[in-house]
UniProtKB/TrEMBL annotation:
SUPFAM superfamilies: SAM/Pointed domain. Residues 7-94 form the PNT domain. InterPro entries: Pointed_dom (IPR003118), SAM/pointed_sf (IPR013761). It comes from Panagrolaimus davidi. This is PNT domain-containing protein. GO terms for molecular function: sequence-specific DNA binding.
């Protein structure tokens, strides 16, 4: 009932924001990827509306594991590097 203007992003009220933490990234489904992105945005104080979450909406964990930094940047030119770096830290790639 709030008339605030928001960019269309996946409905994060239905996403279990902690579920991704108890799984290995290779087990993540699309909702886990979105929950992780919301977590990264909050920890880095980035307004979630600014991240191109819809471009990652079809990604699961195995797909993210195959993506290089350029693939993250193609989906989000502004925050792609941050997302890639955060993901590599999570999987022990740094």
């Amino acid at each position: 009932m709030n008339s605030t203007q928001l960019k269309p992003i996946p409905n994060n009220e239905k996403v279990d924001l902690a579920r991704f933490r108890v799984k290995e990234p290779q087990e993540w489904v699309m909702d886990d990827v979105l929950a992780w992105m919301l977590d990264v945005a909050r920890r880095n104080q980035v307004p979630v509306e600014n991240i191109n979450m819809h471009k990652f909406a079809t990604c699961n964990g195995p797909r993210l594991l195959l993506m290089n930094e350029q693939a993250f940047l193609e989906r989000d030119p502004v925050y792609g590097t941050m997302l890639f770096t955060e993901f590599r830290k999570l999987v022990g790639g740094e």
